[in-house]
Specification:
With 393 residues, this protein is an alpha/beta fold. The chain folds into 2 domains: 4-183, Beta-Lactamase; 192-390, Rossmann fold, CATH 3.40.50. The chain is built from 11 helices and 14 strands. The N and C termini lie far apart (51 Å).
Length: 393
């Protein structure tokens, strides 16, 4: 538990209202804020009974972690009781409008807290938690998402509330101790114009990309981890004419699209008995029967790439997807690797990719945020292999 008095070098954040000062007091004492009429030690319908039954009592953000201003939209407002109990004293951090990622992990025998507000990871100074509390946080959050986490099933990925994505892993897979990764959505669906004005790209590139979307061109968004692929894809889909029907297929639903007709499909992992799995390629086949105007695959990461390319090659124009690649030049090799998982050789994959994908938009994350670093077009080279050529705007 964070204790600012125990580490004099940490500077507490200023609090502008009595409510925020009270919140800081709760965090210093390792307790959670309660609704009016439910003092500490009393049962609350939101937080449940106090004491040992609470999954992660003792985990709090501490004064060194900035919390949201009172007027900011609350991400935690749509969390269910189980998720709120599991997050415990970390709840105020989730309502920080600038927060993008939150990490709790055991290192050196103690739990540590890291946050990312869009620029880079920052450790919360002096924050410590017992390894057992981090483990309880992991199992509680995964249970709140309807899945189970233990030594036999030491990792899981769930979605909570309005798009909060939680991944957790336990020992022995996590060597030092439990690790929890939380990715939080923005307060509202991203708007393409605002992203462009904020430094995503220049006006020429923005106009070109908007025309590609409205012209029903098939686009692949690439980039490294945390480069903004999902954010850009969500914003681009907001440009789709409102008379069109968008179907999205994701491993964990993260796309937030400002559009009146979106059907979101989410894959399902098998249960503890190994039954009930619904993989991405199955969802893609189902989506083709749902009269889609546009099919979007949140992230291409396996054999489903073959189903997507087939769909885009058979009249479903205007589709899109994302692919993890550190550089634009790596995209052909990544596509070939995924094609191999589907039984496609490099030649077959190359021909399908060139026909299906009209442009590749590559993102990078720098000190000033996300930006479009390059735009490329796929082609077949003189040697017959898939290659990509950068397009200058």
């Amino acid at each position: 538990m964070a204790n600012p008095e125990a580490h004099p070098g940490a500077q507490p954040n200023p609090t502008s209202t009595p409510a925020r000062r009270a919140l800081a007091g709760f965090l210093r004492e390792g307790r959670e804020p309660r609704e009016a009429g439910h003092p500490a030690g009393a049962e609350s319908p939101e937080h449940g009974p106090p004491g040992p039954a609470r999954p992660v009592r003792g985990l709090s953000a501490g004064d060194d972690a900035t919390t949201a201003a009172p007027s900011a939209p609350l991400r935690t407002g749509v969390l269910g009781p189980a998720a709120r109990r599991a997050f415990g004293g970390l709840l105020p951090l989730l309502d920080d409008p600038g927060l993008r990622d939150l990490f709790v992990q055991v290192r050196g025998g103690a739990g540590r807290l890291w946050v990312d507000r869009g620029a880079s990871l920052q450790a919360v100074p002096g924050w410590r938690a017992d390894p057992s509390a981090v483990r309880s946080l992991a199992t509680g959050l995964i249970a709140a998402g309807g899945r189970h986490l233990d030594e036999l099933h030491p990792y899981a990925d769930v979605r909570l509330g309005d798009g909060i994505r939680v991944h957790a892993v336990l020992p022995p897979v996590a060597v030092d101790g439990a690790a929890v990764s939380v990715r939080v959505p923005g307060g509202a669906p991203p708007e393409f114009g605002a992203l462009a004005r904020g430094g995503l790209c220049g006006q020429l590139t923005a106009r070109w990309l908007a025309n590609e979307v409205r012209g029903r061109r098939n686009l692949l968004v690439t980039g490294g981890t945390g480069s903004g692929k999902t954010t850009l894809l969500s914003a681009m889909l907001g440009l789709v004419p409102h008379g069109e029907r968008i179907l999205t297929i994701e491993d964990v639903a993260e796309l937030r699209i400002d559009h009146p007709h979106v059907v979101s499909l989410e894959a399902r992992q098998p249960n503890a008995e190994g039954a009930g799995e619904v993989p991405l390629d199955r969802l893609l086949r189902e989506a083709l029967r749902m009269r889609p105007d546009r099919i979007v695959l949140g992230e291409c990461r396996g054999a489903e790439i073959a189903t997507l390319l087939t769909a885009l090659n058979t009249g479903h124009d205007g589709g899109a997807g994302t692919l993890h690649a550190s550089r634009l030049a790596e995209v052909p090799a990544r596509l070939e690797a995924l094609g191999a998982l589907a039984g496609l050789g490099p030649d077959a994959l190359g021909r399908q990719a060139v026909s299906a994908l009209h442009a590749v938009v590559h993102l990078e994350r720098g000190p000033r945020g996300h930006r479009i670093a390059a735009i490329g077009r796929l082609g077949i080279g003189a040697s017959g292999v898939l290659e990509i050529t950068e397009v200058r705007m």
